[in-house]
Amino acid sequence: MKALLALEDGTVFEGKSFGAPGERSGELIFNTSMTGYQEILTDPSYKGQIVTMTYPLIGNYGINPWDFESKRPFVEGFVVKECSRIFSNWRGRITLDEFLKKHKIPGIEGIDTRALTCHIRSAGAMKAVLSTEDLDKKSLVEKAKNSPGLIGKDLVREVTCKKAYKWENKGTIPVHKVVVLDCGVKHNILNSLVAAGCEVTVVPASTGAKEILEQKPDGILLSNGPGDPAAVPYVISTVRELVSAVSSSLSPVIFGICLGHQMLGLALGGKTYKLKFGHHGGNHPVKDLKTGKIAITAQNHGFCVDIDTLNKNDVEITHINLYDNTLEGIRHKRLPIFSVQYHPESSPGPHDAGYLFTEFVKMMES
Question: How is domain 2-146 classified at the architecture level of CATH?
């Protein structure tokens, strides 16, 4: 079946449909990871986005029940050079094509993903429509132009849990109690906390600071999530109250990841802005300014905290991205609060930043 991918600037790519038929709009971005497409598809941070994989062959190890990062896929559409209809992996259960059909997500293959990626790098991420139904190019371009986009849109409400729950403890003895503010948390963040010796309770993004603190946690994790951090003022307000609580007699450690890092930056008085084409992939070099060490990191964000807007009397810059010198980590100078823009849980990899969960635990012990 024929499929079209139309961008708001008038560029149109023609290919073949796989996955579900239909029509979806979203922000078109690219991901440079060579593996991990199942984790990408099920990462709630991709809500509202159509994802292009730069690696040419996708689907060759199938889909399995163990590598989900959430209960279901959240991408709006999937773009690849070639979708493998045959998979070869002992853990695989169904094909990528079958998986997308099951969850009613359209895909397009057979287009020049190199040209598409170069176009996005030059023009920036933009709104797009993927369709097997409307094959009129002008019509699709207009639909892309008129689609809502991500700026100012609260996508956290669409991915957060409905009620609080405890994450399964797989045999470890928990030492520290951690509350995770769920803005679209990945399963492997929760698994990493459990492996580090934490009892994990996940609460909805709408949960207030008072309710979180009533649980008397040793630590609070501000999770990853989709979209514009400035579009979730209720979470920023909660984080601001949590920071105030840390500065008083209450002293839980606060750790922010990705969107959690951005919301912490906003709560501390900073501002955020939209990156030209975002950071999406598993090969981003990040420098630790204290040690000088370089970590190769997994990343997925389209917004960034503006370094120049942070109060340097309170906030220390700890990490920067070596691709574009954007902010990758901060730490409060007096309080047990820190955050990173990248993903230390990094499933399926790289694992250079996994030590941050150990650091979180050590801070709770001190």
Answer: 3-Layer(bba) Sandwich (3.50)
